[in-house]
């Protein structure tokens, strides 16, 4: 005699969740551990590069310290000492040490 109960789940749904569930979980974990923090860092860097102005003391990616003399859309002219002026791409600036008053 065969008795069927109503508590049995469809086999297709269990297989689907068992197959794709870990993949979805991995993507969610990677998003919160890698992608989202990187987007936040990129946003703050773009804001820093957009707020540069004459007189800011900066450090380049190569470690060169200087003061911004001139700035345009793509390039920055940096004074390293009293007579040395160097031209850098705006994206070569790593950080701003102090801002012009």
From TrEMBL:
It is found in: Cell membrane. InterPro entries: Preprotein_translocase_YajC. It comes from the Bacteria. The chain crosses the membrane at residues 13-35. SMART domains: YajC. Keywords: Cell membrane, Membrane, Protein transport, Translocation, Transmembrane, Transmembrane helix, Transport. It is a single-pass membrane protein. Belongs to the YajC family. This is Preprotein translocase subunit YajC. It comes from Paenibacillus filicis. The lineage of its organism: Bacteria, Bacillati, Bacillota, Bacilli, Bacillales.
């Amino acid at each position: 005699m065969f008795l069927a109960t109503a508590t049995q789940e469809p086999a297709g749904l269990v297989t689907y969740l068992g197959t794709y569930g870990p993949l979805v979980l991995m993507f969610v974990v990677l998003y919160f551990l890698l992608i989202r923090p990187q987007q936040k860092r990129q946003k703050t860097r773009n804001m820093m590069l957009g707020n540069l102005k004459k007189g800011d003391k900066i450090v380049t990616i190569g470690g060169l310290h200087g003061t911004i003399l001139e700035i345009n859309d793509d390039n920055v002219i940096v004074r390293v000492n009293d007579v040395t002026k160097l031209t850098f791409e705006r994206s070569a600036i790593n950080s701003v040490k102090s801002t012009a008053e």
